[in-house]
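Predicting holo structure, heme C bound.
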Amino acid sequence: MKSTPLLMSRLAGALALACVVCAPVLAQNAPVEPKSALNAALLTGATFSPPDIATIPKDEFGKVVQFGRNVMYDTKKYAPQYAGNSLNCVNCHTDGGAMAGSAPLWGAWVSYPAYRSKNKKVNTYEDRLQGCFRFSMNGKAPPLGSDVLVALEAYSYWLAKGLPVDEKVAGRGYPDIPEPAQAPDFVRGKSVYEANCAICHAANGEGRVVNGAVVFPPLWGAQSFNWGAGMGSIKNAAKFIYANMPYGQSYSLTPQQAWDVAYYMDGQERPQDPRWEGSVVVTRAKYHDNKNSLYGTTVNGILLGDTGAPKPFQPPKS
Ligand code: HEC
Ligand code: HEC
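Done. Tokens:
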């Protein structure tokens, strides 16, 4: 399954609208439809292809599969009671969760239950779905058995058709990235960001909204993922960015550039970790005491995460 021409034309249109002032830059950087050689799957060794979307059955089961797919693409619309920011699942699980190297749902489906050091217990597939709502979507975990959770499971199961149960399936997660030669750096990351990312995600990292639709998702700030999210780990972010960004130009950054820009992105303020323990020191000690988290450290003069208790749940602005 490839990236939809629809999305690409929306992107091109949005860029034209949002960037009238940067027309000269656009002429060189205008996004093109990702070629098969230029997507995240390239360096993963993945051989599995999920079924074609056109083959979703036209029956009761198929309706639920389709609903799960809708939740992936437009989480705010189809799961408004659980989505707390302006992101959609598909922003980090591209191609509707079908793309190898972009944490595809088929790779996840065949990999649970599994032990995770993040919470020191065996996690079910439902736990992972709930976690992405709570942290990546800065929202609420849909209860077990809720229509949203059941639909995401049905869609994942359908995507994984024919795949053996195996947590090491090629293409799962975000591909590994070599360790950086130099320690990741904020100042270098800022110049990578300005040269390669700001055109879409905006200089302030808040993305771009055109006619009420989020065309480029926010990377930090109030509408982005919160401090508890997987993307808040510099390593996860570097892996995601290396394989998936700039959009349509997978693997075009050097690994060092990906680490630096991940550090820059994860060195910015975002919503509080919902596991907040009353102080940034205690919360860091309990959940962030590792070199991949900048939470509770001072970056660019700001003590990150020192923003008080999490804000009560609010549906996203747009
Ligand atoms: C801001 C980016 C982001 C968004 C938005 C997001 N996720 Fe994730 N998701 C991740 C990251 C990063 C991981 C890997 C996390 C880790 O290792 O802690 C992940 C992991 C997962 C996994 C497990 C993958 C595996 O192979 O183990 C599933 C399933 C999942 N997400 C589903 C969803 C769903 C459903 C949504 C929308 C409700 C969603 N995600 C939204 C970033 C995101
Ligand atoms: C051509 C426009 C474009 C450029 C340039 C670009 N991105 Fe993105 N980015 C996107 C789009 C579109 C998505 C959502 C993908 C989807 O929904 O399929 C995205 C998603 C993301 C996400 C996950 C969602 C979120 O908001 O957290 C991160 C992180 C990200 N980009 C980082 C970067 C970084 C870092 C760079 C520069 C190295 C970059 N992007 C360059 C268009 C772009």
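Strands lie at 114-116, 121-123, 208-210, 213-216, 298-299, 302-303.
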